[in-house]
Amino acid sequence: EGQTLEKTHQNFEEFLSTLPRDCGWTPHLDRYLYQGCWYNLFFLKGVIAAQRHFKAQPTDIFLCSVPKSGTTWLKALAFAIVTRKKYSDLSSHPLLSTMPHECIPFLEADFTNRTTTEFPLISTHIPYHSLPKSIISSGCKIVYILRDPKDAFVSLWHFLRKLTPKGVTYISLQEALDLFCKGISFNGPHWDHVISYWKARIEAPQRVLFLVYEKMRNDPLPSVKKLADFIGYPFSLEEENGGCLQKIVDLCSFENLSNVDVNRKGKHRPGAPVAIDNNAYFRNGTIGDWRSHLTPEMAERLDHITKEKFGGAGLPL
Ligand code: A3P
Description:
This protein is α/β, with parallel strands linked by helices. It contains 16 helices and nine strands. The chain has a four-stranded parallel sheet, with helices on both faces. The N and C termini lie far apart (41 Å). 36% of the residues are buried. Residues 65, 67-73, 76, 151, 155, 158, 252-254, 257, 281-285, 289 line the site of adenosine-3'-5'-diphosphate.
């Protein structure tokens, strides 16, 4: 304990060689299976560092998701809710000049050099069973966003394609589907990730809130109100009557954020090994876009696994 990853470099290399490895999605980038979840090396190191060093405070609030489920949107909304008194002038709001991922620290990337944060919001793609123990023992609140796995899969395929360097051949949708169904994906298996949090929600409903992307897209206000209540920043009657809730929804809408310059042209984590164009996080934000990409057989295959894994669990999907 207390040793940095660098000091234990040799042990880490040995440890790494014991992990199952796959590069099916991204031939230039291996993924490792650690505690039942696939990570690239950058995030794997971050997960282990967070597990060793991160010290949660009871007031920390975690925004959790399996990638491509609406994380960017959830971050924007939670940030806007928590900081609404400070940034009451929406015309100069930080979300108009800073991409949502830069507004909220990411557990497996931003806590290798620090152990806590002053700001209450932290996001993560780590499945529940691998979260640093102090998050559970401190009783931190957890918000989880859920999305139809078919749309999350299609979104992931497009996202990783954008991240693939020029000259590297990217896999076909069919090959990607085969891997996804086997559980090999970004923080996959997708379904196990969802279930890990759903089990936590069943055990402690007061500690874990589930939001559903499709429900939010169709009718954002009730979910955003629920989110604000749950994280302890409820809207007053005066705020509601003054349209504050609607203003936050409009500020964070796909239509608004995807057109802001920083999200059209900026880069996320410039200089880091995983620098990403911000526009990769904003594709089209529609429900059922899978229909334009998946054959009925492909969709059926995903639905079958979803039914098998989620059936009877009572998930709000
Ligand atoms: P699509 O690829 O289907 O368009 P994540 O943020 O977890 O990486 O998920 C990305 C998905 O959320 C993408 O879906 C993206 O377009 C969509 N998205 C990003 N910002 C959004 C917003 N403000 N409102 C609704 N959807 C959003």
